[in-house]
Amino acid sequence: MSRPERPNVLQIICHDIGHHVGCLGGGLSTPCIDALAADGVLFDTYCCSAAQCSPSRGSIMTGLYPHRNGLIGLAHIGWELNDGVRCLPQYLNDADYDTHLFGQQHESSHPERLGYREIHRTGGRACEVGPAVAAFLRDHAATRDAAPFYLNAGLVEPHRPYQQEGYRSDDPEAVTLLPWLPDRPGIRRDVADLNGLMYAVDAAVGTIRSALADTGLDRTTLLIFTTDHGLAMPRAKGTCYDPGLRTVLIVRLPGRFDGGRRVGSLLTNCDFTPTLLDFVGAPPVEGLDGRSFLGLLDGGAYEPRESVFAEMTWHDKYNPMRALRTERHKYIRNFGDRPLVYLPLDVYQGCAGREMRGDYYGSLRPEEELYDLAADPLESHNLAADPAHAELLGSLRARVHTWMEETDDLLLRGDVPPTPEQARRIAEWNEDN
Question: What is residue 396's predicted lDDT score, i.e. its pLDDT?
Fold first, then answer.
């Protein structure tokens, strides 16, 4: 199949969504996102490299796992990409794309480091980003600019706090429960308010799609909708469980990636940059952890992944873990004595976190976890101590260790110290609590 003539690329990326959209069974109404999926291609098992903001976004934009690109903690707490690591906008600049950032990014405290040719100083809320992107599209169409664009539209929603003015929350008694959490009032309250933020995201998607259609740019623009990681809920964000790792990815380009197809292949968001570079015809980049899955989309050659890796090192606290996921199994290696389930600070302080603290913070997690995702999709039954699974456990353990060695994982050398800003914040937290 021939490539479209210099296609534009418009990427909408949101915080902390996971699979919480209607078309992936999220139990809420997201008609604009669902319409995009019905018109495009929806991915079922697109996993993030880390269930936290900056490290996952770093992988999306570099094609490298966090411990390979250096972004093993949050960018606003002193963590940065390693010197010499290139980002997607820089590669696209080389391919003669005009690269634009609207709204929020969380890959660096110095956004100019990311390589965008133009950073538009809009706010990050959906009600700000949607109209700003729509105005850009109208201007671009009117000037008939010959250069194709790459536009990254970053929405802050639905990042916590969930309880915010200006959003339409649901009735807590009427919400669809999250299957991995119990039915408790604080959890219902959080889901109700989360849904209100999601309605704003959905409206922004509708605003942008309308502008693409009105200008005729929809015919030559690859539209992407995705997120960084799972919901900011207990046992999701800040973990290696599927509610933290599985993320929405929808792509659409009329005549090429359309028709409401659904792709079940196992992917990592490290694959995002190499796939997009392949799509625009840019030279492949050597040494990346990700690889192009363009063949899945256009019927070309593609070798399915047997597994993907995931990790966590620093968030607001030190929480080192490494994991491997196959189609059937999940292996998690936990380093050090940590609570049974770690709650990132924003989750810990929220309604659901207050409901679940007592369940998680009274005991320590095991050194290893093993789950059969077919028989136990909610990852409730740890099989690591079951003799019947000893051979499988040993095999997956060895694969994770080999991966860590081959990628020079700094965790193999011992505990990873905090940045100065991280240490300062931890000291303040300890004083106040």
Answer: 99
